[in-house]
C-alpha cells in the first residue's frame, strides 16, 4: 500500500509537505510580509491593490497584475455601494481562511471533500462606531461561522478538522487575540 501523498481537494499535498520540510530545515523561510496599497476614490469609496509580497526568503513576483478590491459603504451609511464595507471584508477573510485551512488539512489527512460552505454573520452596533456610546465597542460584538461540509470522512472527523483549522487560522487568531497596528502619517 502506497503512503505517497497525492494532490487532493485541489491542494498540491506533495508540494505542501515539501514546503513544511523546507521550513523545518530553514525556519527563516517561514517569515512572510503581505502588503496592500489603498487609495481613496471619493466619499467612503476606496480601492486597494494587492500584488507583491515577501515570502520563502524572497520577493514574490508571480502576480503580473494586482488584485483590485473596492470598498465602500451602502447609501444608508453615506456611501454609494461601490463595494463591500471594510467590516464585510473581515467576514470574507475569516470564511476564506477557515475554508483554505480546512481543504488543506483534509488533504493532508487523506480526506476528500465534496462540499464546503460557510455562512458568516457579524453583529455591529453603530452606537460605538459613531461615537454615540462609550459602552459599545466600535467593531463587531460577535461573529458566527456555520459550516456545511460533505466528504468521505465521518462527521466527527470533519468537525475535528474544523477545530484544527480554527486553531491554526491566522485570521481567526488576529480577530480573537488582536494584533498591534502601528499607524504613521505623512503629509504632502
From TrEMBL:
Q: Which InterPro entries match?
A: KH_dom-like_a/b, OsmC/Ohr_fam, OsmC/Ohr_hydroprdx_reductase, OsmC/Ohrsf
**Pfam families under this entry?**
OsmC (PF02566)
Coiled-coil spans in chain: none
Report the superkingdom from the record. Answer: Bacteria
- Name of the protein in its database record: Osmotically inducible protein C
- Organism this protein belongs to: Acrocarpospora corrugata
Q: What is the lineage of its organism?
A: Bacteria, Bacillati, Actinomycetota, Actinomycetes, Streptosporangiales
